[in-house]
Amino acid sequence: MESILKAGFYGELKNMIDPALIISSRPNAGGIEKARKLGIAAKNIAIVRFNKNLIASFSQKLLRILKKFDIDLISQNGWLPLTPESIIKEYHGRIINQHPGPLDPGRGYDFGGKYMYGLRVICARLAYAWLTGSDFWTEATTHLVTRSFDEGDLLSTIRLQFEPVPHAMRLSELTQERKKLKELTQIIQQKLLPLEHQNVIITLKKFYQKKINGYRRAKALVPKENYEVLKQAKELAVQLFPDG
Q: What CA–CA distance (Å, rounded) separates 144 from 100?
């Protein structure tokens, strides 16, 4: 969000986008103070608390605020709640999400979905690479938002390579390397984060230029024989990063 604001106010998105509104589902989100420091007025910052038992109310409040500010494009950057169906319907094809890992819309076996956010995504990708002895890379991804987590068509990706291991590891071996796995996950996150910011700006520029085209992978990201490995990698990532 901070990178988008900077690019919109005085960077490469100047005169392309007009950042009009910041919405957070948590009043203590770090982005709120960053937005204020960049000159976003208090009236342009909204807190809409998420409650899974009050989805209808949450949805109504979101839609009312978006309409009030005449919003025509939504970028989700660190947004964790599942976007309500009414919002997706109203802004069909105009909601993008930033994701720190490779996705494979249409197939479902990838590094997204419920519980996959933040460091967990990067850790799962790294663990998968170690367990398979292949695919020593990850991606900064933008995709269209749909009714389910991380299932919309891809919009843009930027790939980041990381150091390979000499051979595939067994799960028992990998669990003994928990400390190293966590440390490398955090190092990769620091390298990936600026690519994520760059990728979102590229995507917003494409929207302005009307060059946006959603797409899906021609080849499966995860082959069928590695489905169980993927499951193990994601479960381990959740264990190592319980707070995301």
A: 14
